[in-house]
Design goal:
CATH class: Alpha Beta
Structural class: alpha/beta
Number of strands: 14
CATH topology: Rossmann fold
Low-confidence stretches: none
Strand content: 25-35%
C-alpha cells in the first residue's frame, strides 16, 4: 500500500504532517512517497492508495497550483476513477477556480471544484468545529483568512455542521466530497483527533483499521466531542 504526500516542503502548516505520520504509526506497512515540487507525482505513473495534500502559505498555494497544473488532467481522471485523496486546510482553495483577496492578491486555481474563495487578510477566522460524517462525530479546528463559495448543489459535502462554521458562515455543510476526493478546511492533525474517521480511511485503503495508541486516542476523542457539545460553548476563539 502506498500513500503519496504532495509537496511536504511547503504543505506543512498547523501540524498537518502529523496526519500521515499517524497513519504510518497505525499501519507500518504503508509505503510513504514524498513528492517534492520539482518531482513527477507518483499518481501520474501508477497506482497509489491515498494522495494527501495539506495546508500552505499563500505563496505555497501558488507553488502548489504551478506544480500540479501539468498533471491536472491525469489527476482529474484518477479522481473520476475513484482515487482516494485527502485535502486539508487551505489546500482546498488550490483546487477551486480562483482565490481573491482584499489586499489585491489573486490566484487562479486548478478548477477541480467549482468553487472560489474570498480572503480578508486582516480578519483571520479561528474556530473549532463539530460535525458529522457517515454517522460519526467529527471534531477539528479552523484558522483561515477566508471562506469558500459556490458548488452548493454541484458537489456533495464532506461533513454536516453541528457547531461551528461550514463552507462559509451560515452554511450547514463543510468541505467537499467528489467520489473519493475528500476536502475539508479543518486543519492540524485531523486524523489524530478523529480515530473513527481514521479507521474508516484505513479501511478505504484496504489496510487494517487497528490504531496506534487506540485506547488513548478514543478516550481523548470522546472527551473532546463532549466538550465541544457543551451548551453555550462559543465555537469562536
Amino acid at each position: 500500500m502506498r500513500v503519496e504526500v504532495l509537496f511536504p516542503e511547503i504543505c506543512n502548516l498547523s501540524g498537518d504532517g502529523m496526519n500521515i505520520r499517524y497513519l504510518h504509526q497505525c499501519c507500518p506497512a504503508l509505503e510513504i512517497v514524498e513528492t517534492g515540487l520539482k518531482d513527477r507525482p507518483a499518481f501520474a505513473d501508477g497506482s497509489v492508495d491515498l494522495i494527501y495534500l495539506g495546508s500552505a502559505t499563500e505563496r505555497g498555494l501558488e507553488l502548489m497550483v504551478e506544480a500540479l497544473t501539468p498533471y491536472r488532467d491525469v489527476l482529474t481522471e484518477r479522481i473520476d476513477a475513484g482515487q482516494l485523496m485527502l485535502v486539508t486546510g487551505n489546500a482546498l482553495d488550490a483546487l477551486g477556480v480562483y482565490v481573491s483577496s482584499d489586499d489585491g492578491w489573486h490566484l487562479e486555481g486548478l478548477g477541480l471544484l467549482d468553487t472560489h474563495a474570498d480572503y480578508h487578510m486582516m480578519d483571520r477566522h479561528n474556530s473549532f468545529f463539530l460535525g458529522k460524517f457517515e454517522g460519526m462525530d467529527i471534531v477539528g479546528f479552523k484558522s483561515l483568512f477566508g471562506h469558500t463559495y459556490g458548488a452548493a448543489d454541484q458537489v456533495e459535502p464532506l461533513f454536516t455542521v453541528e457547531k461551528g462554521v461550514g463552507r462559509f458562515p451560515g452554511a450547514a455543510v463543510e468541505g467537499f466530497r467528489r467520489k473519493n476526493l475528500l476536502v475539508t478546511y479543518l486543519t492540524g492533525p485531523l486524523l489524530v483527533l478523529n480515530p473513527p474517521f481514521t479507521k474508516w480511511l484505513l479501511r478505504q485503503m484496504g489496510a487494517p483499521d487497528a490504531l496506534a495508541f487506540e485506547e488513548a486516542a478514543m478516550d481523548n476523542y470522546h472527551r473532546r466531542v463532549e466538550e465541544f457539545r457543551e451548551p453555550g460553548r462559543n465555537y469562536m476563539y
